[in-house]
Amino acid sequence: MTLRALWIISHEKGENAAVRFSRRFSTVEHRAKRLAGPCYLAVPEDNVILQHLLTELGLADSDKPYVALRDDCLYRPGAPAMELHVDGPEKGALWPVLAILHGPLVLACLPLADAPPEPRPPLVSLLSVSQGLTLLAGLQTFLLGSGSKPDGEGLASRLAMLPSVLLQICPLGTPLDVPPLGPPATPAGPAPGGTQKQPAWKTGVHRGRPVVNVALLETVRSMQYGNRSRQDLWDVYGTVTCKCEVEGVLPNVTVTLSLPPNGSPLQDLLIHPCVSSLDSSILTASSVDNCDSSAFSGPYKFPFSPPLEPFRLCSYTSQVPVPPILGSYQLKEEENQLRVTANLKLHESVKNNFEYCEAHLPFFNRDQMGVVEVKVSSGQLDVSKEKNLLVWALGQKFPKSREVTLEGKISFSGPAAGPADPLCTELTAYIKMYFKVPDTTLSGCSVDQHSVQVYSSAKPRIVTSRELQSNDYFIWNSTGSAPVSSGQMMV
Predict the structure, then answer these.
(1) Is omega for the bond preceding 119 within 30 degrees of 0, making it cis?
(2) Which portions of the chain have biased composition (kind: Pro residues) (predicted)?
(3) How far apart are CA 277 and CA 174, in angstroms?
(4) Which of 56, 177, 249, 297 has the most CB atoms around its CB within 10 Å?
(5) How does pLDDT run across 35-88, given as a tens digit for each residue?
(6) What is the pLDDT of residues 126-172, one digit of tens each?
(7) Please, are residues 436 and 354 in contact by the beta-carbon 8 Å criterion?
């Protein structure tokens, strides 16, 4: 694996961002140029990379609530392996740009993909992606140590040492220490820590009570139009995060993900480089194009030797037949009043037990709210006239019918103009849902406590959890026009 470029960026929630360190490797860039041929795109200047990277990570343009390239509901982000679209005479995209965020730093690199640019190879087939993330994780530990916010002098001194450190660990853009290739031998019993070599990507050994924590989080997005001419869209993105406090230099842990008998196979798998081996059937089923009736549907076993810090074991997407909450929304103008009608229905397959569930109905680009005469069949309605916003708090459960309604009239006769928003003009209005459901996933994916295997000298306490939450979950006004996007979502 070789690197074309490396960047260390400091930021404070996107403000005062600056490239603190960058390194380009001309010999690797020469190989990239020969490999890409006419499709070659040179690495831009640091200020261009800084702007595009912060935008992609959502750390820039805080004054702009909507950035099409980043916030489009149909756009599928691919972090930590991203695609940066570079504007200029030579328009194109840098791929795969790897980035990890930790505390005040963004660590990013552009590995050389040893494959022709077209057709683009799947991420799982590029060893450079896993090894590039491993290198960034090692640099993160070197720069920040065990904490997340080192003092300014400490960080400055480590950055000053970085050129000489890279000369030793990454000469000519090729990292020397990466996890060994091939499946590791499974120990019959716990091996003494002193006989194992400490890997370069692991800077210490855990001492204390052993605990393994595995958390599965699924995020669902949706755009519902309530119009037969427009197809509703939704997709599900899942992440499995682990924190393994286990004694030993190279303890072996195996986490198994299971699906229900009728569950759809997991797709677009992106796996942490510490995972030592995978069943080939998992990789062949990880692409949407390869999904058919014979596709692999689990269980998904991930053997690995964990780093000390919390890490994302894997991420995936899943095709589900319906979104969790189906809704309809209609607005009608009546002189200086607006008649509002909304209906929300919880699908029968979803657990009726929320940590929270709210529906936000904004009315931008109008005068300030005056008289609000709106009733709801369940939950509580909070009216914020200054923000021209209705917040419908549905609580922790839908009623027995799993269906709720909102209906009424709103007049806009306030003394001042209300808030403006480019997405909510005329009848282009929406309901945005915010919810979290503990102990459930939309795909049915789960990690059982008894399926987590740990080969260590001490038996650890194993904690598992799973939950479902919303993100960019919109129900558009069916009597108006909704924004049209050029991106794609799974249906």
Answers:
(1) yes
(2) 178-190
(3) 23
(4) 56
(5) 888 888 899 999 999 988 888 887 776 556 666 666 666 555 556 788 888 765
(6) 888 888 888 888 888 888 765 556 567 778 888 888 888 888 888 88
(7) yes
Q: Rounded to a whole number, what is the distance in angstroms from the first to the last CA of the chain?
A: 36
Shared fold status for 3-173 and 325-438: no
Beta strand pairing call for 461-476 and 211-224:
parallel
Q: Are 155 and 143 in contact (CB under 8 A)?
A: yes
CB count in 10 Å sphere of residue 191: 18
- Which of the 8 DSSP states describes residue 339? E
The amino acid at residue 252 is N
Structure-token pair, residue 355: 């940590």
**Are 224 and 431 contacting, i.e. CB atoms less than 8 angstroms apart?**
no
Residue 170 DSSP class: S
CATH superfamily for 325-438 is: Mu homology domain, subdomain B (2.60.40.1170)
H helices, E strands: number in the chain: 6, 21
Asked if the 3-173 domain carries CATH number 3.30.450, the reply is yes
Distance in angstroms (rounded) separating the CA atoms of residues 247 and 361: 51
Which residue spans within 13-120 are E strands per DSSP? Answer: 15-24, 81-86, 92-102, 105-111
SS3 222: strand
Angstrom distance (rounded) from CA 300 to CA 243 = 19
- Gap between the Cα atoms of 295 and 12, Å rounded: 45
Q: What are φ and ψ of residue 137, in 5° steps?
A: -65, -40
**Mean pLDDT in order along the chain per 10 residues (491 residues):** 90 78 92 86 90 82 62 61 71 84 88 77 79 86 68 80 86 69 38 51 68 94 88 93 83 91 86 82 55 62 86 91 93 84 94 95 88 94 91 95 95 82 75 95 91 83 94 88 45 37
Assessment of whether the complete model's pTM goes beyond 0.90: no
Protein fold of 211-322+448-468: Immunoglobulin-like (2.60.40)
Q: Pairing mode, if any, of strands 389-393 and 430-438?
A: unpaired
Q: Could you tell me the residue ranges of all domains in the chain?
A: 3-173, 211-322+448-468, 325-438
